[in-house]
Amino acid sequence: MSDPYKVLGVSPDATDDQIKSAYRELAKKYHPDNYDQSPLSDLAAEKMKEINEAYDTIVAERKRRKNGGYDSASGSEYSGYGGGYHRSSNYADVRNLIMNGRIADAEQILNGVPSSSRDAEWYFLKGTILFKRGWLDEATNHFSTACNMDPGNAEYRAAMNQVMNQRNGAYGGYNRMNRPASGGCNACDMCSSLICADCCCECMGGDLISCC
Questions:
Q1: Is 33 helix (H, G, I), strand (E, B) or coil?
Q2: What confidence category does residue 109 fall into, taking pLDDT thresholds of 50, 70 and 90?
Q3: What is the pTM for the complete model shown?
Q4: Residue 103: phi, psi to the nearest 5?
Q5: Cα(163)–Cα(127) distance, integer angstroms
Q6: Which of 72, 109, 68 is nearest to 91 (CA)?
Q7: Alpha helices per DSSP H over 71-135
Q8: Which of 48, 174, 190, 204 has a C-alpha 20 to 30 A away from that of 89?
Q9: Contact 70, 23 (CB under 8 A)
Q10: HSE-up of residue 82 (Cα within 13 Å, Cβ side)
Q11: pLDDT tens-place string over residues 165-203
């Protein structure tokens, strides 16, 4: 691999924030979504792969230096899920971006995480972005993966319940199969839906039901 600093267009003396900023700008420029159905899509994908590898290499190298040469994780800033899992600051950044409506920026950071380092929280946050865009099938798949990786996480289960309820028409969508025989709403279903929605709001920093 070529010099990762040259790939990102930064000096080896650049700060972590400068490196992160350079990575985000390049990722925004070469993101595959920008080249959908374009003859340059293959070249963009290769460039994006090179950018991801360069960033991951720099992060791993700096992490090793901070640890005195010992790489206790996978060599990546994003440690995999397991016992003693510690959420990285970048995931906190992603949550803040989602809360502030900066969905594209949040997705950009998530897309830069190597596939081998994508943990339960990664799938939850990616699912949240997909859900906000209305891509319910894809969101369901990501929430399901997060729940399977971390079955005891109430946040992930609440998100899964919310997207399933919406797919089934519990949030005002017309669903003939799930409508009560009387044509009205089922009070239990409404309460369950509100509770699930409140859980998700609280997880992302809001509060739908103030008394809960």
A1: helix
A2: confident
A3: 0.43
A4: -65, -45
A5: 10
A6: 109
A7: 89-99, 103-111, 120-132
A8: 48
A9: no
A10: 6
A11: 888 875 444 333 333 444 444 444 444 445 555 555 555
